[in-house]
Amino acid sequence: MKAISLFAGAGGCSLGFSEAGVEIVAAYDNCPEAVETYNKNFFGNKCHIADLSKCDFYLLRKVITEEHGPIDLIIGGPPCQGFTTAGSRFWDDPRNKLISNYANALEAFKPKWFMMENVEGILTTAKGEYLINCVKKMIDIGYSVYIKKIYAHEYGIPQRRKRVMIIGSLEGKQYFFPEPSTPAAGSIYRESSATLRQAIGDLEKYEIPEIDHIPKHESGIQLKRIESLAVGQSMKDLPMDLQNKSFQRRASRRVCDGTPSEKRGGAPSGLKRLYYDEPSLTITSAATSEFIHPINNRPLTIRECARVQTFPDTFQFVGTDSKKILQIGNAIPPLLARQIADSILSCNENQPTRFPPGLVSYEVTKASAMSPALKKTTTMLDSLLIDRQERLELI
Predict the structure, then answer these.
(1) Which of 298, 325, 307 is CA-nearest to residue 200?
(2) With respect to CATH, is domain 188-330 assigned 3.90.120?
(3) Residue 188 in this model has a pLDDT that exceeds 70
């Protein structure tokens, strides 16, 4: 298969797909440091700086197909900006430009398959309208669509990272998400054989500058805060004289389902000492300042975060430390991408079905109960769902 990667970032998704045997012929992102990182780690300088909100994908298709032939697959995930106008004006709203252009890419290239990844907030953003409009457009283009909320630590990734995967088949081939290799259990699915210790345990006593494993030596009140944290504790567990004033302000905010992403709040952990024998918390751009090593009195290093995201030590990141951790936090874990790629390649061998384009299946939660916002989304998804009995009769 030949693929292009949109919103490619540092190349975590491309790494996983290329390891599965997919040829990534071109990649695009608007972050110069991410593009430089990508090209440092992949042969051929295939990643290009591009503002995908302004891209002419029909022209891009002409250029790419003249050199590489037809594209079989598009991978990547446009950021969910949290803004939308519901209803028929959705695609005219300039704030939805990134998802609009992702749809334009599908329409222009008409790849056999696509994989779109996004944060779980896409399920309830704008009361579910964001996701529903995306899926409707994919169906209109001609795709059979499959949706699942993935718990990354069930696939061997040592962090509790939840993401929504949307897979589409233009030929109506049945798709099956990969089966979890390390099923999670326990309170909020924290128990898993994919642990932080497995990922970084061998690095706790060393400093290796050439792979960005440079422990940060804290001092003053910050060191006192860190020293006071037991495993599993966070800023809220500290005595008042050690708590940060900004934490106290943020702790009074509350998360509201469907709230635009720039207004989402909630009581943040701030500093938190991680468990060694559980999956890590989700790696974000704040991990090297807020996630405290289980044993050492310091935050995680850039390389430790990259390890948790399943990047190999040979993968080098470009830019300042803040740019490096941003690239790492934004990435799709390569190990997860590899398993999704393998499943697509396997399902590509299936025979096309006769049922028309539509939403074939979705799984958006493991919980027995749903929030009102998620329930509203599933009700709308049900209206798009191809009838199971009809599918069985047509296969």
Answers:
(1) 307
(2) yes
(3) no
Q: What's the Cα-to-Cα distance from 189 to each of 159, 169, 342, 375, rounded to whole Å? A: 11, 31, 25, 21
CB 307 within 8 A of CB 201: no
> Global pTM?
0.91
To the nearest 10°, report the CA torsion of 167, 170, 171, 177: 0
Catalytic site residue 256?
no
Query: Which residue among 31, 80, 134, 305 is the active-site one?
Result: 80
Condensed to tens digits (0 to 9), the pLDDT of residues 293-341 reads 999 999 999 999 999 999 999 999 999 999 999 999 999 999 999 999 9
Amino acid (one-letter) located at 30: N
DSSP 74-118: EEE-----S----GGGGGG-GGGHHHHHHHHHHHHH--SEEEEEE
Amino acid residing at 86: A
DSSP assignments along 11-38, one per residue: SHHHHHHHHTT-EEEEEEES-HHHHHHH
CA distances from 191 to 194, 226, 262, 280, 336 (A): 9, 25, 31, 11, 18
Domain boundaries, the chain: 2-185+334-394, 188-330
Burial of 80 (0-12, 13-18, 19+ CB in 10 A): buried
What whole-number distance in Å separates Cα of residue 276 and Cα of residue 71?
A: 43
CATH topology of domain 2-185+334-394: Rossmann fold (3.40.50)
pLDDT at 129 over 90: no
